[in-house]
Amino acid sequence: MESTTQQFCCMMIPNLVNPHSSPWAVLPAGIHSASLQEVERAFASNAKRRRLFVGLRQACKALRYAGCTKLFLDGSFVTAKPIPGDFDICWDPSGVDPNRLDPVFLDFDDKRRNQKLKYGGEFFPFTWQAEPGKTFLAYFQNDRFTGQPKGILSVDLTCEPLE
């Protein structure tokens, strides 16, 4: 009898909170693991959010194709803002094959216009500096309105059925 191993990736997105009077509720401080299915269920709740989720999913496929195994999701998409502008992703560059990476992920011209046109969001390698002394991974964990800590989502692309 042949033995098989099945890998399960179980997560749960926490409820949004607003302890610091931001314009809308945000994820509680910390990095919270989530599957794309959970992200869709929690945040793709209207036509604009569904369009953004389609772009997010396509970006995940493209990043995984290049060898990316993990990304972190931020932006108004993962808040209670009724009509979010976009999503923001910082992705793990370790193991990424630059020959397979969609060049738009490294196109930062015109406020990342081409990234937003193609996928609906903005993308940054998580090790890059967002501001002096702060990587994008750290930068994403602060509320831009209050300066207070807030949460982001972590998506393990090795667990995602993106075919």
Can you put this structure into words, describing what you see?
With 163 residues, the protein is α/β, with parallel strands linked by helices. It has one domain (30-159). The protein has helices spanning 36-43, 47-65, 109-119, 136-139; strands at residues 30-33, 70-74, 87-91, 121-125, 129-131, 134-135, 151-156. The chain has a five-stranded mixed beta sheet. Strands 5-6 form a two-stranded antiparallel sheet. Helix 3 links the parallel strand 3 (87-91) and strand 4. Helix 1 runs antiparallel to helix 2 (47-65). The chain starts with 29 loop residues before the first strand and ends in a 7-residue tail after the last strand. Mean pLDDT is 92; it is low at 1-8.
* SS elements, strand count: 7
Determine the fraction of residues in helical runs and give it as a percent range: 25-40%
Q: Overall mean pLDDT score?
A: 92
Globally, the shape reads globular
Largest sheet: 5 strands, mixed
Spans with pLDDT under 50 lasting ≥5 residues? 1-8
Q: Within the largest sheet, what's the order of strands? A: 1-7-2-3-4
- Strand fraction band? 15-25%
DSSP helical segment count: 4
Number of domains: 1
